[in-house]
Structures are given as C-alpha cells and as structure tokens.
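During the second year of the project, the team shifted from modelling isolated chains to modelling whole assemblies. The rationale, set out in the original proposal, was that interfaces cannot be judged from single-chain predictions alone. As a representative example for this report, we include one of the complexes processed in the last quarter. Its constituent sequences, exactly as entered into the pipeline, are reproduced here:
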Amino acid sequence: MLKKKHLLGIAELEREEIEAILESAASMKDILKRDIPKVPTLRGKTVANLFFEPSTRTRTSFEIAAKRLSADVVNFSSAGSSISKGETLKDTVRNIEAMIVDAVVVRHSSEGVPHYIASFSKASVINAGDGKHEHPTQALLDVFTIKEKKGYIEGLNIAIVGDITHSRVARSDILAIKKLGGNPIVVGPPTMLPLYVEALEVETAHCIDEVIPHVDVIIMLRIQKERMKSPLFPSIREYSRLFGLNRKKLEKAKKDVLIMHPGPVNWGVELSPDIMDFERNIILEQVTNGVAVRMAVLYLLIGP
Amino acid sequence: MKLKKQLMNKEEIERALKRIAYEIAERNKGVENLCIIGIRRRGDILAERIAKILREIEGRDIPVGALDITLYRDDLSLLNIAPVVRKTYIPCDITGKKVVIVDDVIYTGRTVRAAIDALMDYGRPQCIQLAVLVDRGHRELPIHPDYVGKVIPTSKDENIAVFLEEVDGTEAVGIVE
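Output from the structure prediction step:
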C-alpha cells in the first residue's frame, strides 16, 4: 500500500510499495480487457496533465488511465500557454490548482520540478519525467512487463543499453530493478555513461555483444539528441554497429530473451528494423501495461 | 482479532451452507444457468463450498467466480490508504445467467451494492440473488439477502467476524474485539 501523497521517483519508494502498485496494476489490466473497460472509482476527481516538454505516449497514457477510472482530465502543454507570456511555473501551478484538481501529472525538462511543485501543492504530484532525473511510471511499467512475462524479477540479468547519462528512464529502471532483486547491467560507450557511474552500483559494459549471451532482458534506450550538448559518438552508423541491436546479434542470446524500449524508437539507430516483428519484442505490450500501471498509481494516490 | 463469544462452530457453518445450497437448488429448480460469485475475501471461499455441495446434490459443475469490489466502493474517500486491488475472476459470460452473490456477513449492504454495480459491468444477468452466512442487521440500503445462514442481532459497536480454515486456519463465527 502506498503511504505517500506524491509519486516523485522510484528512489522514494519501498519495495513493498512497488509490489503493491504492481499487484493493483495486474487487476487494472483485467479491467482494460473487459467489454466495459471503465470503473467508477475516481468519479468526481480531476487530474491535470502539465506537460512542459513534448510527449505523446506518456500524456495519452495518463489521460486514458484517468478516464478508465472515471476521473476528469485536463491537459495543459506549455506551447500556447501563458508560460509564453512570462508566467512563472509556480503561478501556473497555483492557478491550475485553484481550479481544484486532485492530481497533477508533471513533465519538465528540469530535474526536480515535480519535487518543487510537491513542496507547495495541495494536489498529489506525479512525476512523468523530470530532465535527466527520473521517470518512475516508465520504470514501474517496465518491471510490471518483465514480471508478467518472466513471473519474477529476482535474479534476472537486465541490460540497459544506450545513453545512460541523459536517460531518466535508465535511472528509474536501475532503481526499480535493484529494489526488486534484479541485476541491472548498463551498456554504452564511455561518453554515454555517467562520470561517476560506480555511484549507481551496477555492472557496466562497453560492448553489447559481450552482454547479449548472459542477459534475460534487454532494454534499449533512444539516442536523445535534444539532451546532448555535443556529439557523443563519431557517427550514427558507428553507434548502430557497436550498440544497436539486430537479429544477427540476437542469435547469441538466450532463447527467451525479451527486447524492450521505452519509445519513441529510432528504427535503424538503436534497433534494426528486423527487430520490429521479432517475436520477443514486447515494446507494444509495454505501452498497454503503461495504462494499467498508471491506473494503479492514480488509484493508490488519489483514490482515498 | 480475538474471539470474544463464539456463535457458530465448524459443524454449524457446514450445516448452514448445506441448507443454503439446497435452497438455491430449490428456488432455481436445479442449477441450470446458474453461476456463483463470491465477494473477496471470504465470500469467494464460501462460494466454492456452496458450489461443491451443489455439485454433490445435483451432480453437475457450476461456474464459480470471485469478485473484488474495491474499485466500486463508496467509502474510499473515508479511508486513509487505498487497499490493493485484487483480481476479479468471472468464470463465464454472465449475460442471461442467474447469478448468486455470496458473502460472509451482510451489514450495511454497501458491499453488496458495490458488487451488483461491478457485476453489471461484466454483463446483464437474468437475475441476481444474494446468499450470506451471517445477517447482522443495520442495513443502510434497501438490500435483502435471499439465503441466510444465521441471523445474528448485534449492536453497531460490536464486531462480527467469520473465520475460515483456508485463510484463518480455524472455523468459527463470533463476536470479536
């Protein structure tokens, strides 16, 4: 059971809380499969999506999740808002709150914005991605998907491949996997691993071929050109050859290896197009599970 | 929870369930088109037992399900912490079926109201009937059970609990403190 008012990061969650979210999410997924995929639980509650950064998947996912629970949803994106008229973040949030909302789902390019909002907000704050810091609901849906497929997380070797430094998904995934007893391995060129990578207390590797035979799950990350200040590798082709995944490289993998990606995928960069119809590519199942996990989070935070 | 005063023992629970099963078969003229759904988390165990007895007396299997009503509760806003949502299992398409809801204790009737709402989202049953092991009174809604194991008049500040082998390791109904 969730004892907190906000969901700011995986770092703040205890193992039992993660497990409670995953258990509730499994029940939520059953609801999504019914003829009437809607329950009255959050009737009368309002969820505001505050997105200061582009997003389709996460925002839509939160919106569908809230609507499946009968909450009302308002969407706010910084483009075309009063932010461009010079309104401060605090004023924007205060004003939206004044319209009486129960939860605000926040995405922002600066780390710590959800924490800042939580410091003065009466509503529950859910972090939907803050800069390079955390993206807790993505990590929750990732571990939910792995658990659903494998039955457990304990003892699994899970590779996270790509730009670890700039990835909030990687940071949240590492924390969630470790809290559930799994073994995350981060893979990427030295320029894409954080300077003090040992602080993450995870195994590291600089070559994808080295880890492929030993892992149960491979989470591929997107190359985030928008967060890179200078190029971190000589060329896309070289990156793709050394750190991208294709069917040929997967021949050495375990028979039941799972391929995941938080999306959006750059086909031809981190994933070769021949992975698109690979039978253990579960990228779209992650998206479905995202709705179930976000329903569980909304229910546990603003249900009572 | 400590048992203060025992009101039913193992044999009495068993006899009550047997009588309920016979009444269900009598009222519905057999078990044709019947589906039994228990409310978690003790009603589902009682539902299994009633179905087992019906199987013995009618000689055929009856679909049994379990319902978690958490998402349909009307008192969530009164709680501090949201309870974990457990799985609901509906064994068949309930549209056109005679559904018997089973719960351990009926009190205010709000749980049953939630269960009826939840069931309606799964289909349109021909009818819904209600079986309970204990009716302790104090209804807050116009809901009345069709099959009752035992009526136990209580005061509002007393607490009735049903203990079942499967979850509690013992069998009893009683007042607890």
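Chain A touches chain B at residues 1-3, 20, 23-24, 26-28, 30-31, 34-36, 38-41, 69, 296, 299-301, 303-304 (CB under 8 Å). Residues 283-302 of chain A form the longest helix (20 residues).
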